[in-house]
Amino acid sequence: xDSDEFMEVAFGLEKSGHPFLWVVRPNLVRGVERACLPxxxxxAVEGRxxxxxxxxxxxxxxxxxxxxxxxxGGWNSILESIxxxxxxICRPQxxxxxxxxxxxxxxxxxxxxxxxxxEWCKIEKAIMKLMGKNEGAEMRERANELKNKVARCLEDExxxxxxxxxxxxxxxxxxxxxxxxxxxxxxxKILALSTETTTNSSGTVVNTFEALETPELRSVxxxxxxxxxxxxxxxxxxxTSNGDRSSLLDQDRSCIEWLDTKEPGSVLYVSFGSVVMVxxxxxxxxxxxxxxxxxPFLWVVRPGLVIGVSGKPELPEGFVEAVEGRCKVVDWAPQTxxxxxxxxxxxxxxxxxxxxxxxxxxxxxxxxxxxxxDQLVTARxxxxxxxxxxxxxxxxxxxxxEEAIRRLMEGEEGAEVKQxxxxxxxxxxxxxxxxxxxxxxxxxxxxxxxxx
Length: 452
Prior knowledge:
Elements: H1 3-16, E1 20-23, H2 41-44, E2 49-52, H3 57-61, E3 68-71, H4 75-83, E4 87-90, H5 96-107, E5 111-113, H6 120-131, H7 135-155, H8 184-199, E6 204-206, H9 214-224, E7 230-232, H10 254-260, E8 267-271, H11 280-293, E9 297-300, H12 319-322, E10 327-330, H13 335-340, E11 344-349, H14 353-362, E12 366-368, H15 374-385, E13 389-391, H16 398-409, H17 411-432, H18 437-451
Parallel strand pairs: 1-2, 3-4, 4-5, 6-7, 8-9, 8-11, 9-10, 11-12, 12-13
Helix pairs in contact: 1-6, 11-16, 16-17
């Protein structure tokens, strides 16, 4: 939008008298990296207006305090709003947003379009209309009906849960979807670039080993053909002497001394990597799920783990007392050394590929909580193909976390998972021996490079 429109939106929100949460991202206003709010705006809306750069939109729309959503009418935003029964004011700009908006107003009747020139008086009137007792109440009733229809659809096996026949064990929801990313354009470019780079290369080096992904490697080789050989030279972390010393974050080695005091296989190691972020509510649920499990645990709580908290997040009140003697919290850990420690019996991970391979190498079963990208695919393999762990699915809740930890670390089912993890560990050791598939792949890679 231009600067005049931005000012009208601000005054419209101010004059409406309603509480609001407004996302003012960088470059929202054309030609301005960071838009300046009108003079006196913040004082005028103090206590009822919150302005932020970006929001966890699904969580916001699901919040009981949210009654309506002013949106551009992008399809993902429309669906998220429908799923939560939230009414919409639509201001479409281009492409499918126009069609989506027409359906919101004329077909589903769960909102309306804000048409014409943006003026504060028009914005104020639109907000009052949506929040009103008559027309607004009728729209809310229709929105709730639509929300219930969505819920009934999700009770059945949804399209997202449908198996991908060509790529077992994957489900549709596991596939790479650029539209789920903050920068969809960049995600599409990454996908296109990776495809172009691979097809134009003289060979492909893969951080895996033959015994782990035999049919998948066969399919890749069939797809690329003889002109682009594939070299499975993993796990790479065992082919270098650097190990954890290559970490970008400072490691707290006191956790190794703490592990030395614990019984073999008793500790759950928890780390979501260097990129994944969680909401404050999710962080609290993880904390109390770990506490309530009764198990010893080592938890990596890095700065920036919680969305909106730049430093290290604070642990919930009463948490430290509840887990005294059986918990160690660190900013960062020497992960390969932790996973190799005899006290570690499980690993709750985001299933980044490096973390997954490190866990497989040490024979440590996994709890999987994938967030994006290849993590979704990897977690599916962990649970359904290799059967060396379980996914923690759906909304993070403490009782669900406690149950998952007990399932992994205790009882017959946990013992079976541990046995399969040990068997996979033996296979990876064979691959790394002289004459093993990894060593052979490295030799072939060197010969191939010398021949170019």
